[in-house]
Amino acid sequence: MKPIAQKRNAVLRVSLRPLIPFIMLFALYVQFHGDFGPGGGFQAGVIFAAALVLYVLLFGNEQARKVLNRKWMETLVAAGVFIYGGTGVVSIFLGGKFLEYDVLAHDTVHGQERGVFWVELGVGITVTAVMTTLFLTFVEYRAARRSGK
Amino acid sequence: MSQALVILLFAFLLIVALVVIRLRDLFSAVMLLGIFSLLSAALFTIMDAVDVAFTEASVGAGISTVLMLATLALTTYREETKKRRKRHVLPPLFAVVLTGAALVYGTFDMPRYGDPDAPIHKHVAPDYLKSDERTGIPNVVTSVLASYRGYDTFGETTVIFTAALGVLLLLGGRKKNEEEGS
After folding, report:
1. Which of A72, B56, B144, B160 could make an SS bond with B41 (beta carbons 3.0 to 4.6 A apart)?
2. How does pLDDT run across A7-56, given as a tens digit for each residue?
3. Pairwise CA distance, residues B147 & B131, whole Å
4. DSSP annotation of A2
5. ipTM score here?
6. Residues B37-80 pLDDT 10s
7. Residue in A111, A95, A133 with CA at minimum distance from that of residue B160
8. What are phi and psi of B78, to 5 degrees?
9. Distance, in angstroms, between A94 CA and closest chain B CA?
10. pTM
11. How would you label A93-104 residue by residue, b for 16+ Cβ within 10 Å and e otherwise?
12. Residue of A nearest to B71 (CA)
C-alpha cells in the first residue's frame, strides 16, 4: 500500500499524525482505569490497535513493519493469552483453583485486584496484537498480489 | 426527552438497516454498518450500559469497519447482481411475517424494561452489585467479566487469538512460499 504520506494528502498527514500518541494514551487510560470507569482490556486493545492502524494508513505497511516487527507482533498475539492463562496457573501453584485470584496476595480483596489487573493486561495485549496483525496481513497480502501481477 | 431520543435513534437504525439491504455498493454498505454500530452505541449509552456502548463504538464502528474495508480491498467493491429471474415473493414474506409475529408475541411475556422485580434482577445480580466488597473494584462489569466470569473471558481471548492464527495461516504464509518457490 502506498502511504498517504507520499501522496498529495498533506492535510491528512499533518492533522492525523499528532493524534496517534493521544489515542495511545487514551487506550492506556482505558486499560488501567477499567476498574473504576467503563472500559477494560478489550476496549483498550482495540483503541491501541486503532492508533497503530492509523500509523499504517499514514506511513504505509513497510515503514510500519519496522516498528511492528512481524516476529514481535506474533509473539505478542500469544503473550496475552499466556499472561491470562499464566495468572490462572500461578493461582493454582499458590493453593487456589484455576483463575481463583483470592490467593494472589495477602488478602482476598488485594488478590482479586491483582488477578484482574494481569488478566485485563493479557486481554489488552492479545487484542492489540491481533487487530493490528489482521490489518497488516490484509494490507501485505494485497501488496504482494499487486506486485505479483 | 429521553423517550423521544430513543425513538429517533431506533428510527435511524431502521432506515440504515433498510438502506444497507438495498445497497449494491459494498463500500457504502460497510460505512453504513459503521453508522449502525454508532447508533447502537448511543442507544446502549441511554440504557446506561456504558461498557457495552464503549465496546460497540470501538469494535463495531471502529476496528470492524477498518477490517471490512481491508477485506473489500482484497475482494471487490460491488456485489454481483445476477439476472433477475421471476421470484416468488409471497412464501418468504409469509415466513418472515410469521416469525416476526411469533417473536413479538414472545415479548408480551417479558417483564417491563427496567422492572426491579424481573427474574434477572433477583438471581445473581444482587450479589454482583455488592462485588466491590469482594474484589475492591467499583466497576461491576469489570469484576464480573474478569473475576466472576474469568473462564468465559479466557475463552474469548482464545477466540481472538485463534482468529489471528487463522488469518496468518491463510494469508500470512504467502511471502514465504514465494521465496521457497523462486
Report:
1. B56
2. 667 888 888 999 999 999 999 999 999 888 888 889 999 999 999 999 99
3. 10
4. -
5. 0.87
6. 999 999 999 988 899 999 999 999 989 999 999 999 888 888 77
7. A133
8. -125, 135
9. 17
10. 0.87
11. eeebeebbbbbb
12. A138
Of A4, A93, A98, A94, which is closest to residue A53 (Cα–Cα)?
A4
For the beta carbon of residue B73, count every other beta carbon within 10 angstroms. 15
Give CATH for domain B1-79: 1.20.120.1200
Cβ pair A135:B55 closer than 8 A: no
Angle (nearest 5°) at CA A18 between A16 and A22 = 105
Cell representation of residue B132: 466491590
Question: Cα separation of A57 and A49, whole Å?
Answer: 12
In 3D space, the residue among B44, B20, B43 whose CA is nearest the CA of residue B30 turns out to be: B20
Nearest CB partner across the interface for B161, out of A77, A99, A115: A77
A126: containing domain: 4-148
Distance CA(B172)–CA(B163), nearest Å, equals: 13
Residue type, A121: L
Q: If 0-12 CB within 10 Å is exposed, 13-18 middle and 19+ buried, where does residue A148 land? A: exposed
SS3 for chain B is CHHHHHHHHHHHHHHHHHHHHHCCEHHHHHHHHHHHHHHHHHHHHHCCCHHHHHHHHHHHHHHHHHHHHHHHHHCCCECCCCCCCCCCCHHHHHHHHHHHHHHHHHHCCCCCCCCCCCHHHCCCHHHHHCHHHHHCCCCHHHHHHHHHCHHHHHHHHHHHHHHHHHHHHHHHCHHHHHHHHC
* Tally of structural domains, chain A: 1
Cβ separation B161–A42 shorter than 8 A: no
* A75 in B contact zone (CB under 8 Å): no
